């Protein structure tokens, strides 16, 4: 266990640009070979404590990847999953495509069948995560229509 740093203020609007410096959530799953789109059910709440406020736009981003490798853009910079602040409550957001000429979610390749990890790293300090789904390319048309749609926590 990590000791709580009592000097940390949750209203400090902490932002991490390098996933290696961020808290990570790891989910382990058995996956067949294939290409997948990653969707995250999350929420970007506004926090209030007396006179202090942390608005949803500063509580909405995370990084994602598979097997400990973060998804990078063409420029080699980690690409965040965001958009949670654009909707009230919990919504599905996709790991975005990294190419300017690509539409829809990014595809993650699983080249070896077996146990893999789906990793999420906190980019903004207030984002809440309720669920993650990997959608095979064959089922992507139906899933992509749900991007930005309400999701049920724990779904």
What does this structure look like?
- It is a single chain.
- The chain has 155 residues and is mostly beta strands.
- Helices cover 3% and strands 37% of the residues.
- It is built from 1 helix and 11 strands.
- The strands form 3 sheets. Strands 1, 5, 6, 7 and 10 form a 5-stranded antiparallel beta sheet that branches.
- Strand 5 and strand 6 (69-70) form a beta hairpin.
- It is globular, with a radius of gyration of 16 Å.
- 32% of the residues are buried.
Percent of residues in helices: under 10%
Major β-sheet profile? 5 strands, antiparallel
Strand percentage: 35-45%
Shape descriptor: globular
| Low-pLDDT segments | none
Number of helices: 1
Average pLDDT works out at: 81
What's a quick, concise take on this entry?
By secondary structure, the chain is mainly β.
